[in-house]
Amino acid sequence: MLGLALRMLRHRIGSAIATLVALACGVMILMSVGLLVESGLRYKPAPQRYAAADIVVANHAITITGKEFDGTTTTTTVPLPEGGTVPADLAAQLRQVPGITIVAVDRSIRAVVPIAATPHTLAHGWSSAALTPYRIVDGRQPNADGEVAVDRRLAEATEDEVRPGYRIPVLVGGAYRTYTVSGVVERAVDGDWPAALFFTDHHAAALNPRPGRADAIGIVLASDADTSAVLAEVRRLSAEAGAKVYTGADRATSAQSEALAARDLLIQVGAAFGGYVVALVVFVVAGTVGLAVRHRRRDLALLRAVAATPGQVRWLLLAEVVQVSLVAVVVGIPAGLFVTGWVHRQLIARGFVPDGFPLSGGVLSAVAVTAVTLLVAVTAALIAAARTVRIRPTEALGEVAVEPPRSSRTRLVIGLVTLGAGVSLTMVTTAARGPAALGAALGMLYVFVLAAALLAPWINRYAARALGPVLRAVWGDSGYLAAANLRANAQGMVTVLTALVLSVGFGGSVWFLQDNLQRQTVEQTRDGLLAQHALLSPAGLPESAVADARAVPGVVAATGIRRTSVITRVMGEPQDVGAQAVDPDSADRTLDLKVTEGRLADLRGATVALSTLQASSQGVKLGDQVAMWLGDGTPVTLRVVALYERGLGFGDVTLNRETVDGHTATNLDDQVLIRTEDGGAALTDLVDRHPGSALIDTAAMNGELAKDLALSAWLNKLLIGVMVGYAALAAANTMVMAALARGRELALLRLVGVTRRQVKRMVHAEQVGLLGTSLLVGGAIAAITLVSVVRTLTGQPVPYVPTAGWISIIGGTALLALATTVLPIGALLRTPPVDGIGVKE
Amino acid sequence: MPAIVGGSAETAVRVGQLTRVYGTGPQAVTALAGIDVEFHCGTFTAVMGPSGSGKSTLLQTAAGLDRPTSGQVWIGDQELSRLSETKLTKLRRSRIGFVFQAFNLIGALTVEENIHLPLRLSGARPDPDWLGQVIDRVGLTDRLHHRPAELSGGQQQRVAIARALAMRPEVIFCDEPTGALDTQTAAEVLALLRSVVDQTRQTVIMVTHDPVAASYADRVMVLADGRIVQDMPQPGAERIAEHLALLGRRQLVAQGS
């Protein structure tokens, strides 16, 4: 049977290649997704910074308990955006626990050493050096406030390699200070965390932006300690102080949050996307295999008539598909590895995963992908085989083997019910606000695409009937023939319609949604910035910078802006929301957030301003009390004093600067917005007075913002591009196979007197009919989704669709028609019609 | 009573009260309206009749390719109506051969592989002597490794006959085997079928339009409106043509009234 299958495959090499291409691309995508997920799962962060500590007491995440609609309690753990802290005096209590040799308080303070090639570092107190450990290689430890011990990596990155006794400038706490190098230290553990500076513990505590708090407390046990007893005591003391205890591999989480976030990103994106890809591969492969079977109906009927049992026909098809799948695996897995290499480099280059995040594994992914592919292909073949069992052997006797029209009533009913569900979701989407509407809109997208797939035979049939007069009017007799063909091939072109509706529906909504968000964000920022200038500093700006700016003659207003995040509860689920903290006195002169209710000037004490989107998703009104957590996990309850529209541009939450004071990692401002009189002001002095800062035109900030947004949109666009591309490939496959199977029909037409030109016009008319219907259905689905999502997120009633978007959708479809039908048909028409007819097939 | 002509009195194929109705309700078309007939071993029967008379349906149901609406079909002493699709296929491939008007062959396989196909699918061991004899008889010795597409229509039909003979079936059913062939080639194919009956005493049942083709048979049966209207021992091509012409006229009169 295997040999026979191979012979049949070789004879119908066209459809075998079509199936192979569909499967190999599927394998490639699955392999790539699999490898990224496997790398994420295999990633075990080494306990770098705290390698020498047995126990780390810290607060990396907050656990929030919520109630589901059905009354069950759920707990969700959210990483703290600003990094949590523990009380520093917990260290004194921990020192009392027997069996502990070292208890070191670690405070990580952002610092900049401008003379180094990589100037950004973290400064710590000296006692925490034991937690890695760092060893002195030259000189001694810092003993006075003006002394610093320097990481050797940092020392080597300076021009004339810093040695003990040198005086170096360090930008810390928003100001330059000069320190004497007391010694050079070297870490005993490898890793890619930034180079360190060590001050005395006293000085580090003084510089700490969060007085009385520590980022972590590291504990080293005595060699003869009873580990479980010590751990129990540490846990008890820590719980009392509201801190968590980390041991083993978890000790790493504090320092390597970036790599861990990358790990979670890979696992989450991969798992979600992988599911869609598997579904899509099933659909594409089932469609291609089904079509290949449909084109060989007569062969299979003959086999049935002559000698083959239904079981043997099923085995024959399975053997064929398995052979093709194995080739697809052999081709697809190396291709997948190659593509993953590219994606990995792009993810690093675009900052989605940190440099040095390894791609690891591959064997497991390859095995899993092979198993999934074979399973998918065999399932597709079994579905197709179930259809062939209905092939009557008597069909072999006929002049032509035509498939009887299959209008399964069940499919129609399910399709109509799905369509009904889609329509009712439209109502929900229109009525709802905020994330509920967003979820409903995406659900609606899936439901509509599914409904189109189920109803595809009927859509094709009705479209052919409705388009008949149009095609006839434009293309004359060719149009008449085209309409008849569209009606007759309604079943065969189901895959094409579904694949194109999916491509246009998904591509048109998700892709353009990114463009809309980007455009709205940039627009809101541009319109909302009343200040002409901004003073920026990566090391942070002290409060004095605002005062300095206000003192410059010609300055109307200056506002310090601190960017942070808060955690709010949206529909019971804790969410990290972008926030800004401002000084309410001047904010309304430098910023226009487009306040719709309340006043920004009222942002005093325990108050908050929310974007209308955020307020509606939390279900709060002006004057309500709203509970949230600051970036370091501190719970606050604030009164809503203003609602504003420009949440995309400025963050959904605006806080009073006093509220976040002591709760952000640097406790410094990120930028100072400066509004000057028309004549301008001499602001260059400001830059000199605040080293490390830069003065930019606020118009230039938009460019930066757009670049950041384009970066985050890239991943979404990559994922949707892969799906759309794969669906389009499915459509192309089906169309090429269908076109090449028409030799006999076209020869017959030409023999009865249809000219070659008329045949070509007929094919063009068919393509316009079929692809036009797909574009219309897909476009309608995309439009409904896009309008509701964009209206929810930006308040714009009409979404923005870039001209290039229109052109690429219509041009891409036209190209598809040209490459997959017009060219193959042209080739068929070059053979004399008598060769195409006749009893031979 | 149906005539018994030539051969032994052993029955190769028998149908009893056979009806076949296509479709349901008002659109239902009766193709066979209760037919009783026996075909004896070692005979060559031509089934004739105007289009729509039910002759192809009779062939398909008698050969187990299609299931009757009611009535029975026996191949030898095996009744078909209770057999599963798989059992029916196994019976077909061991006891029945087919030759259709066209598209008899699998394009992917060579002449030899096409001839071996039923053997291969049934898992039976080929008998090289017999196969050699069959191939020799149909005159395809030098064409064994060609593809069907490289053969003429007559050659393709001869391959089909060779395939039908490969399993040494009791009965060979032919549906217009010469319909797509010119007179000379048709004569060769018919002579081959005749020799199958005469030399190896197999049974041939052939549906045809052509009185000349029917003149190769031992017995000619004429169907109209799903019933047997004539059943006669070989009357000669001219009388067959007369009968058919008469039948055609009668139908016209019936329609005109």
UniProtKB/TrEMBL annotation, chain A:
Keywords recorded for this protein, A-Z: Cell membrane, Membrane, Transmembrane, Transmembrane helix
Major localization class: membrane
Residue ranges of the TM segments: 12-37, 273-294, 315-343, 363-385, 412-432, 438-459, 494-513, 718-741, 768-793, 805-829
Keyword Protein biosynthesis (UniProt): no
Membrane disposition: Multi-pass membrane protein
Pfam families: FtsX
Location(s), subcellular: Cell membrane
Keyword Nucleotide-binding set for record: no
InterPro entries: ABC3_permease_C, Membrane_comp_ABC_pdt
Top-level taxon in the UniProt lineage: Bacteria
Domain annotation ABC3 transporter permease C-terminal: ranges: 273-391, 719-832
PANTHER family recorded: INNER MEMBRANE PROTEIN, MEMBRANE COMPONENT OF PREDICTED ABC SUPERFAMILY METABOLITE UPTAKE TRANSPORTER
Protein name per its UniProtKB record: Membrane protein
Organism the protein comes from: Micromonospora gifhornensis
TrEMBL record, chain B:
Boundaries of every ABC transporter domain copy: 13-250
Keywords noted in UniProt: ATP-binding, Nucleotide-binding, Transport
InterPro entries: AAA+_ATPase, ABC_transporter-like_ATP-bd, ABC_transporter-like_CS, ABC_transpr_LolD-like, MacB-like_ATP-bd, P-loop_NTPase
Superkingdom in the source lineage: Bacteria
UniProt xrefs under PROSITE patterns: ABC_TRANSPORTER_1, ABC_TRANSPORTER_2
Keyword Cell wall biogenesis/degradation: no
Keyword ATP-binding: yes
Name the record gives this protein: ABC transporter
Organism of derivation: Micromonospora gifhornensis
